[in-house]
Amino acid sequence: MSQVITLQILLFSIFIVSFSAETVSSEFELTRFKEAIYQRDIVSLANQFYFDQISGVVNKVRLQRELDIVFTYFGNVTNCRQTDEDNFAAIVLVSSTQEITAEREFKFQCEFSKIGHGAILVKTITVENQKLAFSFSIGVTGDASRSKELWRMLKSPMAQIMGEENRDNVYFLENKYAVFLEREECIDDHYSVRYKTFHRLLDQTNEVKDEVGYLLADVLAEKLMSCDVKKIIVIVSEVYSGQDEVLGRLLFRFNESKKEWQLRSE
Fold it and tell me: Is 105 in contact with 123 (CB distance < 8 Å)?
């Protein structure tokens, strides 16, 4: 019997995506930004990002930690040049929990001492007449036919960012949502799932996200069917500032008439 996941959850999200951006110009200090990358000067690099007044100090410490992790994994960066190439798989780091629309985007193809060819995408905004970055994507390049291989290469740094060691439990759902599966098991009358999400925005009602649906349908479908249960309990934790924050407990029940899983209130 086919079981289709129906998801109606409002969550916030930071995306791990394939790049698709135009190369543009602006007053953003690219030379200074690139020099900080080349020198691996995390402090100088972070100083060129926007941080909101509410949680800016915490976010700056977090961003510096995450930048250090990805640069340690990718290695020294050299020869960054603007490009229109779109075949990238990347980890996206942001400096604010606010929802921000980019004014400018700069995309570079770079050389990394540990992984070879890679890419960096920087998104900027203007704050009090100052051009600042708020989104930093760093990833690997390759032919579209190597998509799965490219995403596998990002599992190790993503696990470390999420405070975990087992890279095999990291999943990139639909090449966008980064999750770490902590536990899944059949317990009595229900299927229990607990995972960490790499969401970052404060607003949980901005868009309907299908992360949980992809996890259940694409990763856990076989195990779910073997459990032969009519109820799923999902506990979602957020990775934020090195701490685990529980976002919520979600309950799904199987609708016999529609032959699908549906989100329910407990």
Answer: yes
- The string of DSSP codes covering 204-254 is SSSEEE-HHHHIIIIISHHHHHHHT-SEEEEEEEEEETTEEEEEEEEEEEE
In a domain, 107, yes or no: yes
Cβ pair 77, 110 in contact under 8 A: yes
192 in a domain, yes or no? yes
Both 74 and 181 in one domain: the answer is no
pLDDT, tens digit, 9 for 90 and up, residues 95-141: 987 888 999 999 999 999 999 999 999 999 999 889 999 999 999 99
208: tokens are 């309907």
Range of 94's domain?
Answer: 30-153
Q: Tell the burial category of 64 from Cβ atoms under 10 Å away from its Cβ (0-12, 13-18, 19+).
A: middle
Same domain for 47 and 143, yes or no, is: yes
pLDDT of 178-232, one tens digit each? 899 999 999 988 999 999 888 665 554 333 357 888 898 899 999 988 998 889 9
| Residue-level length of the chain | 266
Other beta carbons within 10 angstroms of residue 202's beta carbon come to: 14
pLDDT at position 173, please? 87
Residue 252, in any domain of the structure: yes
Q: Which of 153, 170, 197 is the last residue of a domain?
A: 153
Q: How many domains would you assign to the chain?
A: 2
Residues 149 and 166 in one domain: no
Say if residues 134 and 103 touch (Cβ distance below 8 Å). no
